[in-house]
Design a protein that fits this description.
This protein is α/β, with parallel strands linked by helices and 770 residues long. It is built from 21 helices and 27 strands. Strands 1-2-3-4-5-6-9 form a 7-stranded parallel β-sheet. It has a 6-stranded mixed β-sheet with strand order 10-15-14-13-11-12, sandwiched between helices. The longest helix has 18 residues. The radius of gyration is 26 Å and the shape is globular.
């Protein structure tokens, strides 16, 4: 039997796909450009924007005779046993392959923002907690584990990571981001991509681009970011993840920037992404994003018009289910309204990816080949390590923490005894199980209350909720105050409930008007503080909340950003002292709740000054975090007299960090850049490097940052990315506001214009000391 060239693994993927495309009909090529969402609900509350209105009916048996591009969330739409789900997916794939002329299976995708979003899979900390860990290597290890779990059940593509940079903490999806700094987001995000791709899973970068800069922090609202903000803050994390991570897919954002929706922007999806950056993978729609060009953005009058706009821009795959790329597109091509070459271009990209994944090979098999355990002991250990590293000790002024082992503790608050307090909105229990109240959680999630009792078995622990998360009822205050008055210390566990589209206080579509603690939790905290008993505030949240009202009145403050299924033991471990806190803030914590959405990346007029009575200075700065041990920074070199280097030059700064305390701990050394004079306004400081160091008592390490002048580059008035001559300061710091050492530089030579291969990362070397 003669094998068709497209089946021949000895040929290049390009040659195989060219042969296959030449054999396919218009309908068969178009079928590769959409997904199908089996089981998606068309009534009640959905898990995607406007799901009920945008989901269409179709005849599955007739549809798959043409082939099929993608299967949408076969595990993440409803509770399914992982082993049975893998078998069901294999059966569906066989049906798809048998129904079409070419025997090509679909590519299956799933959400994996904080772990595989399916029943009985490990719920890891949310991305904001990854940022708080400042530990890219551990995030990469976690992503590899997630990827292996996806592959084990037959999934090919993961819709993560989110690389949006926080611009306004009132936005509901802050919990899904890594932080408010593009360097931190880029380095941690690239690590996640490397881990996922190392397992053979196609990583999908979200949301390209500008989504987090929506006006008024409203989900899907227009983006009014300027050209330089877009280039210097929004885009760099995507460059990191493509160049250093090797991501093979990008998801177009819902939003429009200056009137042009991302899903219909050839300047973004083709000229920048493909021509400038050299991306060769697939661009997929955010759910219903193609249809939104007609129904929400109103730049197209018909479904075919929306399909044309998206395809012409460079959007290859319509997700989650067919609408615009189905019959309307085919009819418009046959009528001569849309060139078939656009179909060919997109189908070629899709089929190249399927070829890379082995889906065009004759020996392809959908059958699972290994034992399936999506919440293994190894997974839980990873979840615990990341949760522990992500907990941030914001304040401990009098050393109240760690708690004494035999103390009397009043645990108060609506987040103390609720397992869901640990999870973000893209965890399966929060995202899907709320629609299936009779189905058990599927994974073990100890609460803070349970974990604290286990950590301190000799302590006398009482508990009362005090109030709900966002309900106005204060009836429980009286009992909370009474329990606190009887105790030596009160642990107040407050925070968010993750949800979707207004069904939570944090999560997609759960935007807020200000940064007050939800509901009456702030008033509850006032009542507890008024007892005179020392209060330890523990926050389990998806965003930072304003804490200036209680500054100086609390015994300690602990911040955890939805730390996952092992978050309860991680937080309790910090309270007991078993865990030495090492997290650092990936977002600033504000003083006051309203009127001044702010991140630390501000030019001079964005800082406090006499021009306004409003002071936006945060209570706790980006990068801040305390420890139970003491670190000494010494033997700094690279400072002194101002050093001259060229605009293509380098300069090293080094210091030794010594653990001068009595217990093991981790320090995070941060390198910031200050540009005193530039041709456009610049952030007063911005992160350009960091290094996490884990040190035993008495141990020290020497850290060297190799600064290259290209790390000072920015976008000038003509839209060029340039390095300008002039003065610079390198600041070694414990946070953006706590500078320890400064190196003065003067860049000489001409203005240098940089291309797409500019340096993104500050090389760092860690060495042992004698």
């Amino acid at each position: 039997m003669t094998t068709a060239p497209w089946r021949d693994p000895a040929l290049t993927a390009s040659a195989r796909v060219d042969d296959l495309l030449s054999r396919m009909t218009l309908q068969e090529k178009t079928a590769q450009l959409y997904g199908v969402w089996v089981g998606a609900s068309t009534d009640g509350d959905g898990v995607a924007p406007l799901q009920r209105e945008m989901t269409s009916d179709y005849d599955w048996d007739e549809l798959i005779t043409r082939g099929l591009g993608q299967l949408t969330r076969p595990f993440g739409t409803a509770p399914v046993d992982p082993a049975l789900g893998a078998q069901a997916l294999a059966r569906a794939q066989r049906r798809i392959a048998e129904a079409g002329r070419f025997g090509i299976p679909a590519l299956a995708h799933e959400e994996c923002l904080a772990g595989f979003t399916t029943w009985r899979a490990t719920a890891y900390p949310v991305p904001l907690a990854w940022g708080a860990s400042w530990d890219a290597e551990l995030v990469e290890e976690m992503a590899g584990a997630i990827g292996r779990d996806l592959r084990a059940v037959g999934v090919h593509q993961g819709l993560a990571p989110v690389l949006d940079v926080v611009r306004d903490p009132r936005w509901g999806r802050v919990e899904e981001t890594i932080g408010e700094d593009p360097y931190l987001v880029g380095t941690i995000g690239a690590a996640y991509v490397r881990g996922l791709e190392s397992a053979g899973i196609v990583a999908t970068l979200k949301h390209f681009a500008g989504y987090a800069s929506s006006a008024g922090a409203r989900n899907l609202a227009p983006v009014r970011a300027g050209v330089r903000e877009f280039a210097d803050i929004t885009l760099p994390p995507f460059e990191f993840a493509l160049r250093e991570g090797g991501a093979r897919s990008v998801m177009a954002a819902y939003t429009d920037t200056d009137g042009v929706p991302a899903s219909a922007d050839p300047g973004l999806l083709t000229e920048l992404l493909r021509e400038d950056w050299g991306f060769t993978g697939t661009v997929v729609a955010d759910y219903f994003g193609v249809g939104f060009l007609q129904t929400q953005h109103r730049i197209a009058g018909t479904e075919a018009g929306a399909a044309h706009a998206a395809l012409a821009a460079g959007l290859d795959v319509e997700l989650p289910t067919l609408k615009c790329y189905g019959t309307p597109l085919i009819e418009a091509v046959r009528a001569g309204e849309i060139p078939e070459s656009l179909i060919d271009r997109a189908a070629r990209r899709v089929l190249l990816q399927k070829c890379e994944l082995g889906l065009l090979d004759e020996d392809w098999s959908p059958e699972p080949t290994e034992r399936i355990d999506l919440d293994s002991t190894a997974n839980r250990a990873l979840a615990r390590r990341l949760a522990e590293e992500s907990v941030v000790l914001l304040d401990n002024p009098d050393g109240l923490l760690p708690l004494a082992p035999d103390t009397r503790i009043a645990v108060v608050g609506p987040r103390a005894a609720d397992a869901l307090a640990m999870l973000g909105c893209y965890s399966f229990p929060s995202h899907v199980l709320t629609h299936h109240p009779d189905i058990p959680m599927g994974i073990e999630i100890p609460t803070v209350l349970e974990a604290l009792r286990a950590e301190l078995p000799d302590a006398k622990v009482t508990f009362t909720e005090g109030c709900g998360v966002d309900e106005p009822d204060t009836a429980g205050f009286e009992e909370a105050v009474a329990r606190t008055a009887e105790a030596d210390v009160c642990v107040a566990v407050l925070g968010d409930r993750a949800g979707l589209f207004g069904r939570g206080t944090s999560g997609e579509g759960c935007d807020v008007t200000d940064l007050r603690l939800p509901g009456v939790q702030g008033e509850l905290l006032d009542s507890l503080v008024a007892t005179g008993v020392p209060v330890v505030l523990v926050l389990l949240t998806g965003r930072p909340y304003a804490l200036g009202r209680w500054h100086g009145r609390l015994g300690a403050v602990v911040q955890a950003f939805f730390p996952g299924e092992e978050g309860g033991p991680a937080v309790a471990g910090v309270l007991s002292g078993r865990v030495n806190p090492s997290g650092r803030l990936p977002v600033s914590v504000p003083q006051v709740p309203g009127g001044q959405p702010w991140t630390y990346l501000q030019p001079p007029l964005g800082l406090a000054g006499e021009v306004s009575n409003l002071d936006p200075t945060p209570l706790y700065a980006f990068g801040h975090g305390r420890s139970y041990t003491e670190f000494v920074w010494e033997d700094f070199t690279g400072g002194g007299a101002r050093e001259e280097i060229g605009t293509d030059g380098t300069h090293d700064v080094s210091l030794t960090v010594r653990n001068a305390g009595g217990r093991a701990g981790a320090e995070v050394v941060q390198l910031y850049l200050h540009d005193p004079v530039a041709s456009v306004t610049r952030p007063d400081v911005r992160l350009i490097g960091y290094q996490r160091l884990e040190l035993e008592p008495g141990e020290s390490r020497r850290v060297t940052f190799r600064f290259h002048a290209e790390l000072s580059a920015f976008t000038d008035r003509r839209g060029r990315r340039v390095v300008e001559p002039g003065d610079l300061e390198l600041r070694l710091a414990a946070s953006s506001a706590e500078v320890r050492h400064t190196a003065l530089l003067h860049l000489t030579g001409p203005v240098r214009e940089l291309g797409p291969n500019r340096r993104l990362r500050c090389d760092t070397e860690v060495s042992r000391t004698e």
